[in-house]
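Q: Got a minute? One more chain.
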Amino acid sequence: MTKIFVFFAPSWFVMMFFKLFVKFKAFALINSPAAFCFRGGSGTLETWRKDTREKPCMSRPDSLLPIDEDTRPRIYPPERRSNGLPCALGLLVLLLSLTIVGLVIIIVARPDVVGLGLLEDISLTQVGFQQTSEALGGTVVALDNAAATNAQAAFDNAITLAANETTRTALENQRIGLEQAATQSVLDSLATQTAVAAANAQQATNNAIVYQQTQAAYQQTQAALDQTATQAVLQSTQSAVQLQGTQAALNQNATAAALGFATGTPSSDFLSATPPPQAVFDERFADGANEGLWTFSSVDDWGVGEDGSLLARGQTNWLLTLDATYDDYILDADLIVIQGNGLQSFNYILLNVPEADDTPGGLALELAYDGLLLRAVGLYRITRANLRSQDFLSRQSLEAIQAVQVEGPPAPDANVRVEVRGSRVIAAVNGDVLLDVTLQEAPPPGSVGVYVPTGTRIESIALLP
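A: Always. Here it is, folded:
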């Protein structure tokens, strides 16, 4: 802005001077003879000069009388001589002097305005460049420090990740070790159970052998007595043999009752050879379950198969009679169990189940299949609450009365006949008596039915008095 003022100030002063000069010349022209004639004066120049010296001048109002008819005296201003040129020259000289003085003051005070401070500006610029270079050097050092800090942080992060990975690996190894220990514990438990079962089986076998030996000795003694001994000796020997046989049988039954496990085959003296009486009911399930006879786990748990049998489709499929007053009876059920290598299944015949959920006294005959053969038969105590549980019966902690390992008939057809007479329960599968249990007391009256896994089919259930 200062440079602009310096270069344009003289031009501005000259223009102002020219403007004043023009105004001055215009004032001189107004008082000239030509201006007089223009205002309406008459006569020659001499007349104008004479009038301006001798006659008074009266002003007249505008638009009252024409100029030619106005007879009033007029007073004209005295003649003036133009002295504008000397004044204009004086002003011009004054303005030029002021301009020169101003330029000198500006050059002395601000030499940089006219370019005289260029060397100083160059020095300042060099100093600025030097400071900028130093600042850039500091920035480079700061960036190097930041890079070193970031590299150290990345190294620390890598070490932390490696430590975390090591910890994770150690925890994984610990978890695998715990799983292996748990598996080993299960294997040890199974081995212990197998060993106990084998010991029980061996003990029962020994008892049976002792009994057979006693029977053989009795027969031999009887034959000898028939030949050489008197009737008294024979009676004495018979009493001794009977005592030994009874003791062996008691030992065998005590072992089975204490351990809930036996391997001997029970007697087959049940279900007399006389024709059975008329059935209380004989359900064939051709049209599904009779709602007037049965109560069941859920409608969705059962369906009718293509062969007309009742098909189990749920997770816990049970079927019980509405009548809960049965006590002495024969229950006959035809089942088609799950068949296939490795397809283990547990099927139950329900006996004397009380009507109330928590009332004890109900019984369940368990048939355990491995997909090919019947492997075990057992009798357990249950309540109706056990049937309503979401867990299958084989996964619940049921009280075992007696269990037998068998090499039973093959799957899938199973005709199960169970007779309950007072405190005695006898069970047969496909005509073979597999279980004969005498309870401490007779079970209370209750409902009868079945409890089977998914895929099992029921062809018929009959109840005989």
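A: The chain is about 45% helix and 20% strand.
Q: Perfect, thanks.
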